[in-house]
Design a protein that fits this description.
By secondary structure, the chain is mainly beta. The protein is built from three helices and eight strands. The strands form two sheets. The chain has a four-stranded antiparallel beta sheet with strand order 1-2-4-8. A four-stranded antiparallel beta sheet has the order 3-7-5-6, with no helix packed on it. A hairpin with a 2-residue loop joins strand 1 and strand 2.
Length: about 130
């Protein structure tokens, strides 16, 4: 995620003038302006892995969306939160934590989070055709 490598093959992600390519669960009906400002823990993808990821990833089989983002700063972490207890530290659950939040001192990070900005939804079908 830090180096923007494809989540499938670990080669560099696809980049065009419209931005870096991500495949995400299609949540366009969940909120206005989706995916603008969305935090993602999934790394981007390269063009040749688009059909494979869309077909084989369980989360994407129910509906995938291809997104290009021009801005995608690392903004926090997905982490397990711990609390101090009589027997030491006890896990209490996973949470997205932005950098600068005091909860980070009680967290064990699992994934980086990038915030997607300047996004364009692109045709998944066209990407699949281009990858051949």
């Amino acid at each position: 995620m830090r180096r923007l490598l494809c989540q499938v093959c670990a080669e560099p992600a696809d980049v065009t003038e419209d931005g870096v390519l991500w495949l995400l669960k299609d949540q366009r009906t969940d909120w206005p302006d989706w995916p603008k400002g969305m935090g993602v823990t999934e790394p981007p993808v390269c063009l040749s892995c688009v059909p494979v990821a869309a077909r084989q990833c369980p989360a994407l089989r129910k509906g995938a969306a291809a997104i290009r983002a021009r801005s995608f700063p690392v903004s926090g972490v997905r982490a397990m939160i711990y609390r101090s207890g009589p027997d030491g530290l006890n896990p209490i659950g996973e949470k997205n934590i932005p950098y600068g939040n005091s909860a980070l001192r009680w967290a064990r990070a699992m994934n980086l989070i990038r915030k997607l900005n300047e996004c364009t939804v692109v045709s998944l079908e066209e990407l699949c055709q281009k990858s051949k």
